[in-house]
Specification:
Distance between the termini of chain A: 98 Å
CATH superfamily of chain B: Formate dehydrogenase/DMSO reductase domain
Number of domains of chain A: 3
Order of helices and strands of chain B: HHHHHHHHHHHHHHHH
Number of domains of chain B: 1
CATH architecture of chain B: Up-down Bundle
Strand content of chain A: 5-15%
Distance between the termini of chain B: 34 Å
Number of helices of chain B: 16
Largest sheet of chain B: none
Shape of chain B: globular
Structural class of chain B: mainly alpha
Helix content of chain B: over 70%
Number of strands of chain A: 4
Structural class of chain A: alpha+beta
Helix content of chain A: 40-55%
Radius of gyration of chain B: 23 Å
Strand order of the largest sheet of chain A: 2-3-1-4
Largest interface: A-B, 71 and 72 residues
Number of helices of chain A: 13
Strand content of chain B: under 5%
Oligomer: heterodimer
Number of strands of chain B: 0
CATH topology of chain B: Formate dehydrogenase/DMSO reductase fold
Shape of chain A: elongated
């Protein structure tokens, strides 16, 4: 025959026979042989002289890796990246992390063990193996016990093996050949059919993701959270006598903390008459820094140099380190915070009076840092 | 009695069938066209599933206001159903993993089926917490830690999040375990099928398994490792489910007995469910000699044992409530037994604690109709147990002004019906598409299938 021989095989009828055969074959010094049985036969590993499996180590490391990964991720997320105090627990509440750590350990250990078992230890999937679709395979997957010595074995000799199998009382003895067609088969990546399939999958996936994220989620009933039966500030409402959904303050009253500003449209006067009541103490500066970073820094930058973080979606403000602003009195800056200036809106609603002065103190510190006095040096 | 030889293990499979006939009988449902009985059963389960589907569609369209959930009973049916179904799943893992570690060979006949039921029960269970979020299409956004614009993460210290991880890990590991067990069987099917399409499907799914002993060695080790992992996993899952309750400070929930109590209850109801379904399967597919009466009897013993553990937990809860001297605890339990929900409590107590006691009698343990009825009771009543725990405590919380009575609605009922429909539809399809008994494992325990090592 022109075909290349893969192995020589023998089939046995009882588990005792196959154990005996495996023992004899391995004692004769064959190494590249395999036993195929419909179920694991006890004692076969010893008979074949197989070394103990190394798979346990894979599991051990995967499990330890899973535990470390879970603990570090949770610790980082809840303690470092976005620390929140929950139920008065510390930022790294180990007992509360244990359940998830356990689950991730088991999950990772299982998946890695099974994946390495199938793909690394067994080199599966492999439907091209020469033993497939042979009479031998059909029998060992049901009720026979087979042994197969590969042609790659250094001691491979057809006549010797044949007589060995005969002396062991095998019921069937036959060779297994490589399938020429499969031997010469090479998968083509550039196959137009395959490429077309890939393209179809890509189009389908991107289209359905697009439709889902941009259309479906805005359709009824998914959009019903947007339309709620509540009164929004500018809407009319039958509830109050005046038909308005929003109530205005009672005439002649002033809300707490909202004393009317006395210098409307009078920046110069404000600059002259308003005096900063706060001393630049550590607390005040901390407060000012905090509020400045929240309310002013998006446009003016953390160092007030006018390096806006809004990436051009709002006009860049000038630096607050200019000669002009440095010469302004505290009251003049206060006026800008209360009234805004040109495109800059008012911040009187976001900042209490005390906070405004604290911000101004902080701006002074920033200015001093770039234009230090000689006495500072 | 003296004639029994205790040094000899009992046969797991009756009558020493030849190995090839095991292939034949187990793959028979896969090779034959389904009969009328199958279609009738499928029609029933699909109807139930449709009822559930309608309920679900209505809940999505009009909102969860259709459910009986109110303030303070915000958990209502969805969480009761969730705990119930997760519990059903636990029997499967117990049979396939824990009994495997204990070398209980009688499990081989029922392990595959029980594992399948685990997977289907967990699928069914997972639906409920997800729809309970109200907008399930956004559930992934609430439940998973992923980098987002708010730079917020999920709360890893919350038992509800532990649940997300526990249940999804449980599902994944059960599925992998199940699939690993299926590979050799799929290879056997591949080698015996005559249909071309089936051959392709089995070739792909069996990954080209060759029954090689070099593979069996690692395979068996992996199976052992997976069983070793699944065992603590299954205990952890219901423990964590019980944390959903026990970590809250509500009277009647805030107790340390919950984890073991929940696990015992899960095994209790799960075994009852597996026993019920197996009784049908062995009859319909003629598996009486593989799923033997001995096996069913052993399952009944487990039901008896776990039933008593549950009964102990019920009593101990009461004792501790009194012994602790904490007034709200005492009230919570008095209210359970004598309050608005006393009917549910006493159904639960009698059926769970007293009825399984009948299994002390060997005759009853071995009588198919009686054991079937008892197990049905156990199932129904274990559902009530979860109802009692969830609803009685919530409806009487610390703030008397917010007390309310929980009444389920028609939509609730339809969702519960639908969950049974889904579960049994999956079970039915499973019986016709995959071997419901592990071929390789059964062959390995048939008498005479292992070498006697005479030549030593």
């Amino acid at each position: 025959m022109s075909e290349k021989i893969y192995s020589y095989t023998a089939l046995f009828d009882t588990p005792n026979d196959i154990i005996h055969a495996a023992k004899v074959v391995s004692e004769k010094g064959y190494t590249k042989f395999d036993v195929n049985t419909p179920y694991p036969v006890h004692g076969m590993d010893g008979a074949m002289k197989l070394p103990t499996s190394k798979l346990g180590f894979v599991t051990l490391f995967a499990g330890l890796g899973g535990a470390a990964l879970a603990l570090l991720t949770m610790g980082w997320m809840m303690g470092i990246d976005y620390p929140i105090v929950i139920g008065g627990k510390p930022y790294f509440p180990l007992p509360a992390f244990i359940p998830i750590t356990f689950e991730i350990t088991v999950l990772l250990a299982t998946l890695v063990t099974v994946a390495s078992l199938l793909f690394f230890f067994f080199k599966l999937p492999n439907n091209k193996h020469p033993l497939h679709d042979t009479n031998y395979m059909k029998n060992v997957s049901s009720d026979k016990y087979g042994i197969s010595i590969e042609a790659k074995d250094p001691k491979f000799n057809i006549e010797e093996i044949k007589s060995l199998f005969e002396s062991l009382h095998a019921s069937v003895i036959e060779p297994v050949y490589y399938d020429e067609e499969e031997l010469n088969f090479k998968p083509k990546i550039a196959d137009p059919k395959f490429l077309g399939f890939l393209a179809a999958v890509a189009i389908f996936v991107s289209l359905s993701v697009y439709l889902h994220m941009n259309k479906v989620l805005y359709m009824v009933p998914f959009s019903w959270m947007d339309e709620q039966e509540k009164t929004i500030a500018q809407e009319s409402s039958d509830f109050f006598d005046n038909g308005s959904g929003m109530l205005t303050p009672v005439e002649g009253t002033v809300a707490r903390g909202f004393i009317p500003y006395a210098f409307k449209n009078k920046p110069e006067k404000a600059g002259k008459l308003l005096v900063n009541p706060l001393l630049p103490t550590k607390e005040n500066l901390e407060l000012g820094k905090n509020k400045f970073n929240i309310y002013c820094s998006p446009c003016h930058g953390y160092l007030a140099e006018g390096d806006s973080r809004l990436k051009g979606s709002f006009p860049n403000p000038p630096s607050l380190h200019s000669q002009k602003v440095r010469n302004w009195s505290d009251g003049r800056i206060y006026h800008v915070i209360v009234e805004g200036q040109n495109v800059m809106p008012s911040y009187s609603y976001q900042l209490s009076i005390e906070e405004r002065w604290a911000v101004i103190n902080y701006i002074r510190v920033l200015q001093r840092s770039l234009n230090a006095k000689e006495t500072d040096l | 009695m003296s004639s029994i030889d205790y040094t000899q293990e009992l046969s797991v499979v009756e009558g020493r069938p030849p190995l090839r006939s095991i292939d034949d009988i187990i793959s028979k449902p896969l090779d034959t066209k389904p009969d009328k009985k199958f279609y009738i059963a499928l029609a029933i389960t699909l109807t139930m599933l449709t009822i559930g589907g309608l309920g679900l569609a209505a809940s999505f369209y009009w909102g969860t206001g259709l459910w009986g959930n109110n303030n303070p009973v915000g958990w209502g049916f969805p969480i009761v159903n969730f705990v119930f179904w997760i519990g059903i799943g636990h029997a499967g893992t117990l049979i396939s993993a824990i009994l495997f570690l204990f070398r209980q060979k009688w499990r081989t006949g029922i392990a595959r089926f029980a594992e399948g039921m685990t997977i289907f029960a967990v699928i069914t269970a997972m639906i409920f917490p997800i729809i309970h979020t109200g907008r399930p299409w956004l559930a992934a956004v609430y439940l998973l830690p992923y980098p987002n614009q708010h730079s917020l993460w999920v709360n890893f210290t919350s038992p509800l999040l532990w649940d997300v991880f526990a249940v999804s890990t449980y599902f994944t590991v059960s599925f992998v375990f199940w699939y690993i067990g299926l590979i050799p069987d799929l290879a056997t099917l591949r080698d015996r099928t005559t249909s071309k399409i089936k051959k392709i499907i089995y070739s792909i799914t069996s990954l080209g398994w060759r029954h090689s002993n070099r593979h069996w060695q690692n395979y068996e080790l992996t199976y052992l490792i997976l069983a070793g992992f699944a065992t603590p996993l299954v205990l952890s899952v219901h423990t964590i489910v019980s944390f959903d309750f026990a970590v809250a400070i509500l009277p009647g929930w805030h107790t340390t007995i919950f984890p073991p109590y929940f696990v015992a209850g899960a095994v209790f109801s799960g075994f009852a469910m597996v026993q019920n379904v197996l009784i049908f399967i062995r009859k319909i597919f003629n598996y009486e000699h593989i799923i033997t009466k001995d096996t069913l009897e052993k399952m009944n013993k487990v039901i008896l044992l776990t039933g008593m553990m549950v009964g102990y937990a019920y009593s101990m809860e009461f004792f501790i409530a009194w012994y602790s001297g904490v007034q709200p605890e005492v009230f919570a339990f008095m209210n359970r037994a004598f309050g608005d929900y006393a009917w549910a409590y006493w159904i639960m107590f009698t059926c769970n604690v007293f009825i399984p006691q009948l299994f002390w009698f060997k005759k009853i343990r071995r009588s198919i109709p009686i054991m079937f009825v008892i197990a049905v009771f156990v199932n129904v009543v274990m559902w009530f147990e979860r109802f009692v725990i969830t609803v009685t405590s919530l409806s009487r919380d610390y703030l008397p002004s917010s007390w309310a009575y929980f009444k389920p609605t028609l939509t609730d009922a339809s969702l519960l019906t639908g969950s049974f429909g889904l579960f049994f539809t999956l079970v039915l399809l499973f019986t016709k598409s995959l071997p419901v008994i592990s071929i390789a494992e059964v062959k390995a325990v048939v008498d005479g299938s292992q070498p006697t090592h005479e030549d030593h």
